Prior knowledge:
Helices cover about 40% and strands about 20% of the residues. By secondary structure, it is α/β, with parallel strands linked by helices.
Amino acid sequence: MLESTIQQKVNHWLDGNYDAETKASIKKLSETDLTDAFYKDLEFGTGGLRGLMGVGTNRMNRYTVGAATQGLSNYLKKSFPNYKEGEISVAIAYDSRNNSPEFAQIVADVFSANGIKVFLFTALRPTPELSFAIRYLGCKSGVVLTASHNPKEYNGYKAYWEDGGQVVAPHDENIITEVQAIKSVDEIKFQSNAKLIEKIDEQVDKPYLSQLINSLADPKTKEVIKKQSDLSIVYTPLHGTGITLIPQVLKELGFENLHNVEEQTSADGNFPTVVYPNPEEAEAMTLALKKAKEVNADVVMATDPDADRVGIAVKNKEGDFVLMNGNQTFALLVAYNLEAWKNAGKLNGNQMVIKTIVTTELIKEITQKYGVNIYDTLTGFKHIAALIESKKQTNPNEEFILGGEESYGYLIGDEVRDKDGVASCASIALLAAYAKDKGFSLFEWLIEIYKEYGFYLEELVSITKKGQQGAAQIEEMLKTFRQNPPKKLAGSDLLSVYDYQKQTILDVQKGTSKPMETDLPKSNVLAFYTEDGSKISMRPSGTEPKIKFYFSVKDTLDSTENYEKVKKGLQEKIQKQIADLGIN
């Protein structure tokens, strides 16, 4: 028997002004499926609104999308009360997922019905271009329909504010309040006002690509590209939006030896050639690596469906292709960009790099060498974007160089305010060209970084817990670790526990706590620090039914020859830590 609150929601949909097909679908659901579909409303997490497609309040469908847009419309009109019809504008983009074009049209219809001007891309575009478009077109907000790298059954709704960044507090909470205030589907204005919808494409593509190329291709870089124009690059969009711009920007930069993975260039929301369209997964790179061997590639790149994340593969010392994780790629990007700024005489102690709290501490080591400020944010690129904007207000002269997170998202420069797979692919190609021009590979460059700053090795363990019961289990796991942390991990004493929800630091050995000095908002994250320098963080995913554990261990690397030996020792340490936490 359904819980009373769930039954009330079901009845509301069956009795309300919902279409017949929706009502018929609800009647076919089992009690378990009804519970999962209606036990909660979709909420804005680290990546916005995201969920399985289907009927119900906890699903992506025309009504939840419509309600989110109506709530955002109401909030926009309250936030900018003196604007007349058509003077508040928004930009809308969408990716290759099933129903994304239809959802984008619904969003445009609802905005326009509320008297809000809409700039709607005529075809799929990368998420970072939507971020750029908001500022370029002077919009107050924006929406992109995407579920990033999630499985094909998902879709999502990422809302942006006028700074080009995803909505953060208080806007996200206020939008949800407005959505929750909608008590009837009849309050959602679905009837389009066509005169307020303007289609866009090249008028944004061209300035977006132009600023990207101009920011990267200084005279020295152009010289390197010219010498290494035959750099062999393999690229796959994994059936997503990257194909629209990434091959183009690489060619315009001067790279002439580009090989697309043809089987994956079609925009297809079923993602037929991969299990998950996620460049973090080795399986998703299978066809790209096959192509790389065929053409003897120098670097392999893959972007997720909305082209904000990028994964890469490079050759190791034996000439075999190995996948780099997000921490490693970000470390290379930081090392390259800071050296470039130094050589250009642009570093004066008033520059910054931003990372998330679960991203490798190797980034801090590199920035300290160059005298560049390093800031931590909560997980989710929206927090990096928010910090860029905040720093611009408090210290306009402090320059943002780049930001990144371990989950394969990077941003170079601040014309875009979200992770940018288009710019990242261009930057990674430049890295590879620079390294080849100096006579070494990206893999060899990474080893040199480890030798200088310390060998940091990271691993992510995700545990999936689906549905209402799964959410409760995740919460219970965090509660247990919060109340009873282990005394040792892999034989090393646990020294402290940083609790970002309570904003306290626990001295595990003494059993005492003190307040955490932080400007970060509260978040359900725990970070364990051990005596041997290890760091283990854990948090519930904001976009998937998962609890995530981030392992980071370190050691010294005295020679290239010892790389495999030290790596094996670090891998064994992580496995012991996993066993000690009881999550294997």
